[in-house]
Amino acid sequence: MSKGTLFDKVWDLHTVGTLPSGQTQLLIGLHLIHEVTSPQAFAMLRERGLKVLFPERTVATVDHIVPTTNQARPFVDALAEEMMQALEHNCKENGITFHNIGSGNQGIVHVIAPEQGLTQPGMTIACGDSHTSTHGAFGAIAFGIGTSQVRDVLASQTLALSKLKVRKIEVNGTLKPGVYAKDVILHIIRTLGVKGGVGYAYEYAGTTFEQMNMEERMTVCNMSIEGGARCGYINPDQVTYEYLKGRDFAPKGADWDKAVAWWESIKSDADAEYDDVVVFDAADISPTVTWGITPGQGIGVNQFVPSAEQLPEEDRQIAEEAYVYMDLAPGQPILGTKVDVCFIGSCTNGRISDLREAAKIAKGRQVAEGVKAFVVPGSERVKQQAEAEGLDKIFQAAGFEWREPGCSMCLAMNPDKLQGRQLSACSSNRNFKGRQGSASGRTLLMSPAMVAAAAVKGEVFDVRELL
Prior knowledge:
Family: Belongs to the aconitase/IPM isomerase family. LeuC type 1 subfamily.
CATH class of the largest domain: Alpha Beta
Radius of gyration: 21 Å
Low-confidence stretches: none
Distance between the termini: 47 Å
CATH superfamily of the largest domain: Aconitase, domain 3
Helix content: 25-40%
Number of domains: 3
Strand content: 15-25%
Number of strands: 19
Keywords: 4Fe-4S, Amino-acid biosynthesis, Branched-chain amino acid biosynthesis, Iron, Iron-sulfur, Leucine biosynthesis, Lyase, Metal-binding
Largest sheet: 5 strands, parallel
Mean pLDDT: 97
Shape: globular
Strand order of the largest sheet: 5-4-3-6-7
Protein name: 3-isopropylmalate dehydratase large subunit
Pfam families: Aconitase
Subunit structure: Heterodimer of LeuC and LeuD.
């Protein structure tokens, strides 16, 4: 095994050849598909008379367009029903495993692959969804791709990619109570910027990540893309192996021991060379809230909206745009900002541990008057587990709605949308203009526990005061 970073080792092992463009032709071990970016890709294959080369390496689910209230077919939304039928047809025609609604395995694509043990260290993974970087939490190299690349992977099981540089992001120390993985990644993006990672893979290292469970690591890797990085990963360790052991697609028996030995060998070497290294101290991270229109426009919950002069020159124009769109003024505290809608869910924060943390805050409290609050589990398995633990009852008693699994209001390609100028406290990953279904709707990103705190207080609130 060559010396170097995990990224270099996995890249080299999956290199099929170098293309005339200078790009690498990279073998993709696992291809995840859903209903939004796959129909056109399958249509392109048909036009060329091509078949799916390795259907057994492709797994499908439905997540973006599924309603989280009434899931009866046909869907009320005709376009959603059309996309659903296309996926059902394409999977059947090509012999692709499809985790449909009611199968017990349906859910957000980046939630179901890890929970089934499909995602494993040392893999290359692709999906027509920007948050595919989530799978890097396992020590996989995972890329979000566009529709024409979905076609390429279906047809050839390979991708044409330029090799990335590797930046090591080290965070050391223990997070204070009320500070979560979501705060860590928002803090990193706020510091390095939304374009800071362009051309890079991010390797997250240090004692803070070592102490995180797999679901927390997934939250961090999920938002690598928001910092401009093409992928983000964490070297596999005992935490990774304990999470994977016994899952549906994890190796069994003697194969397990062989797999762990191999996974250990692909970790970044102690003397690996990086293109850049950035170090953070966990003690400097507080509950973080975005105030603007990019995930990089974040501040600590007790801080004030920055003035343009306080920001780097290249960030000033978008700050001016954000003040107007968000209706927030420089120097204003983010604490106490009134909220209309509180959404807990998404591929960033819709896993069981996220729901447990939010339920701790909701328990024995009531959603504030005039606030709509709802919880959307990331998958059918997450929903089942949450209900077995009674979390649904806690949320419902507090006045939250308990929904069916799906992407919900993260992208709002379903009935869950903001109305008009509503302001949302949201546990997802993007706060762009119009992101949550209303052209003038506003989004504040924060951890699930912080969203729960906002729901019961009716405004942005410091969750540490409720713990």
